[in-house]
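User: Predict the structure for this protein chain, please.
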Amino acid sequence: MSLTRRQRLVIGHLILLAGISVLFWSLFRTSITLPESAAIVRALLSASILFSWMLVGFLIWKEPTALWVGIGCVVLPPLFWGFDVRAYVGFLMAILCLWAAAREVSRETEDRLAFSSGRSFAVAKFMGVLGFSILISMGYFLSIRTLSWEDLVSRFQLRAGTVEKIATLVGYVQPELAELGQDHRTVDEYLRSLNGFSFLNTSDEALQFEQLNDEVGRLREQGINIEFTGDALTLVRGAAEESSLASGRQQLGELAGRQVDGDEQISALFAEVLEKKIFAIVEGSRMQERIPDRTLPVFIALLFFLTVWPLALLLFSVWSFAAALCIRLFRALHWIEVTRHAALQERLER
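Assistant: Here is the predicted structure, written as structure tokens:
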């Protein structure tokens, strides 16, 4: 039985996919053992090529065998890095997500009246990125699971996207923390929102002067003397606000372990404080005795996943665009053909 041009393309695609996959996983493991900037950039570039080429496969893999062979080419290399039931459960989840993404692309391609590779790839964004992120995280887990406690602790580093994900999860219990992790205001702007001075916003003069007197007394207790040379309310408000900001910066500085100037982004400061607290918890001798060596790599891999997932979602547009260009090239070379077919459509008559 002779093969069609698309089927021959699929065979070549799978062979190249296997080579790209082996290259990526090799560079990825190197970036873990030697986390230098150049190694990380090479791993990121190879991951981008691998995902884009896999997206192309989602569109041209019409046969179930090709689909499972393609997913196997992407997933198999890290399976040889060691055996761990937890990692294999993660790999199974990644396989299911990638399979679901491929099915979504196939269904979108068949249901659309006009062929559009870009729109077909778009429906695979969530499941495809989720599966790829889980897959990479499981490879990361297998690479670090045998490291010493000291080496594992040094790998704690929270990014903004990680903090937002953690804050969102914690927000189900403490909603204000979810808002804080996604707040892009400066520290001073955040502190001002917590310390509104209402006595300037009321029309009751008696209430204004009563609150003014209380505020002046509080400032004098702090050693701040007020000289009334102009608008008393505005003068007191300015002094009170500056005192409150200084106190808030000092308290936040104690949490962060450094001086806080007030122009830092509150979400970035929150990430810094959260990271320091995790360091303090993990580095404690009691915690080292209580947490088994098998548990800490799982936690670090989870933080790694929460970092990779938002990054991959941001890069998906670039990856899908590259995959769409490949499909356009294949059509120009007549390696794949897009034909027109008559379609029946049911309508409700007027």
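Residues 281-292 have pLDDT under 50 and may be disordered.
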